[in-house]
Structure prediction request, 269 residues.
Amino acid sequence: MSAGYHIVVCGSIVPDPWQTLEPVAGPAGPTLKNEMMLPAVLDPWAGHALYEAAHLAQQTPGSKVWLVSLGPKAKLQQVLMTVAQKVPFELLALDGSAGGFTEPAETAAALAEAIQALPGLDRSRSLLFGGWESASRGAGVTLQSVGERLGILDQFQGVDELRVLADGTLEILERIEGGRHQVSRCAGPPAVLGWATGHRPEPKNNPQVGMMNMRTAMPALQRAKPTRIGAEGLTFASVTLPKQQRETRIVKDVSPDDIAREIVAWLKS
Prediction:
């Protein structure tokens, strides 16, 4: 495709998975304890989508990548200091909640509105990328809803691989039930691809790419539109961590078969 693709990646930030997350009831609804103090990272599924988008853009001259992110502006800035050094992209930031207690429909509406207003976006050449799942908004419907609001009917979820054939056709490897994959073909953009893992490793930091990205990212953060995506009228009876149970014994000279039998007996009980 000589004209290239316009690839829009939807990806937010999430608390670092090494942190202990404790849900609490806040004045505006459920939240995480000390949420603004927790270190944040780019959502892992969104990271796969971003790296795949950058690889496709590199292989197709004339392509461009946007990263559309909805999250607290201060946290976005912290995460971008690292992510911006990975691959080239142009940032569109929305200043709002990135927590898991938000309504997917409201999130999708805000993202779709922002994408429609992107200057220079050619809808006929556009590919909408994002995570098949999310470490915070794991409803699995947000990206699909964004695509529907943008009028994109060709949607593929659980994508592990994308190849562009000689005639411009997109060949897509999707996960389906039973641990199998399905090979689909799409005539071309526009299309929605929700990425599972992809095949691109996390790129190494490149300070030159980071400097280029931050020239546009910092003004984008300053212009970030305040976006409220609270679940109006929705209440939670309680928010608690799953209970953990740990029973430990230290024994010697026990065969693997005896250990296995004891574990099975414990599970049955």
Summary: The longest strand covers residues 155-164. The chain has six helices and 13 strands. The mean pLDDT is 83. The domain at 6-226 is CATH 3.40.50.620 (Rossmann fold).
